[in-house]
Amino acid sequence: MSVRHQAELAKKYIRYYFSSGNRHSVHSPFVYSLVDDVLNKKKFLPAYAPMESLRAELLKSTEVLNVTDLGAGSLMGATNTRKVKDIVRHAAKPPKFGQLFYRLVQYLHASTVLELGTSMGLSTAYMASAGADVHTIEGCPNIAARASKNFQSLGLQHKIHQYVGNFDTELSKVLKEIPAPDIVYIDGNHREEPTVQYFLECLPHLKPSSLLIFDDVHWTEGMERAWETIKTHPAVTTSIDLFFIGLVFVSPDFKEKQAFELKF
């Protein structure tokens, strides 16, 4: 990430921080409960420990992988070799997000999760350890193979189903093979048109009450446009902007479209 990009992102975050609300600014009973029972429940649970032990181990790893980057580019430059510890440091979501995904799986009683972008599999593992069957697509074979070792070390390989290839070709195949997902987590490519396309491709396959999670919705102007397009789509009934991720619900039970920007 360039210094200029860092500065721009910091300015956006400051604006978000001072403009976003909390549970007292929420008038939707569903979102109020979600904030109270999921977003604000930040106490460390024993169930989180295996993933954080793995994270600590990976952050020390000097193992080098040859990487195929099919998305908008790496945070670490154009090199095609990367250390595992650098991938985890720069590409993995911080612990609070993996732990949020764990709580969302449990709160929504999600049985099937579809993830675009496995990386080292920390978020994947959090969702699988919460009880969901996770179907995860990764574009880089070597990263997928390393993630597979991580799942085995956690004893989660039976809950996680891996697919390797370009999202543009693999997504449609996977959607036809798996049960309708309760949660879709889109964490890959990070460009405007593909992000919107993945959203549109998933829509017909969702359950009526599904949640979609989008990573880095303020990463670039293109991602911000994608986020606006998704939020305003007629199928989306509720959106929650947490700055680093965005949540959208497609539940027909919500009769009025609502958009929230909340601190997390």
Automatic annotation (TrEMBL):
Single GO biological process annotation from the record: methylation
Pfam families, sorted: Methyltransf_24
InterPro entries named in the record: SAM-dependent_MTases_sf
Record GO terms (molecular function): O-methyltransferase activity
UniProt KW Hydrolase keyword: no
Keywords attached to this entry: Methyltransferase, Transferase
Xref: Gene3D superfamilies: Vaccinia Virus protein VP39
Entry keyword annotation includes Nucleus: no
Name the record gives this protein: Class I SAM-dependent methyltransferase
Source organism per UniProt: Chitinophaga barathri
